[in-house]
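S1.2 Input.
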Amino acid sequence: MSSFGRLFRSLSAINGWSLVIVGGLSLLASLAFGAWAGAVVSLAAAFHGIVELVLRKRALIGNQGDAVRWMALNQLGLAASLSVYFAYQVMILDADALSLALMQPPLSDLLSLYPESRRSQLVDMLPLLIAVFYALVAGVSWVVCGVTAIFYWKQR
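S1.3 Output.
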């Protein structure tokens, strides 16, 4: 087997199992805390992991062309699922609740290290900074899933 084939076997197994395990653990935590959006994205991650493992098995037993194409599309679906979740998190961000949380220790203790003008500026900018963070994470997920999708697609 070529090193490229070994890389496919390893990468697809790691992708699939890590999505199933992280999705499952995240689902348990989300259910424990009543975070229904987290539960939905956890189920989506676990689903994409299961699909990855099923398609991997098909690719390894001989139906490589179709299976790897679907694996590539599954990676794009994973990036889309994550992006929808990140967008939802930005949309439900409550600036007032965030400001209130910043006034409680230990965050208030940390903020007290800054001058008042800088502190209020930071508190005012925090919702924007969080939105930018989610956008960056979504972008990184598209890059990682996109590169993986291209790798899978080239396996045909």
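S1.4 Remarks. Residues 3-153 form one domain.
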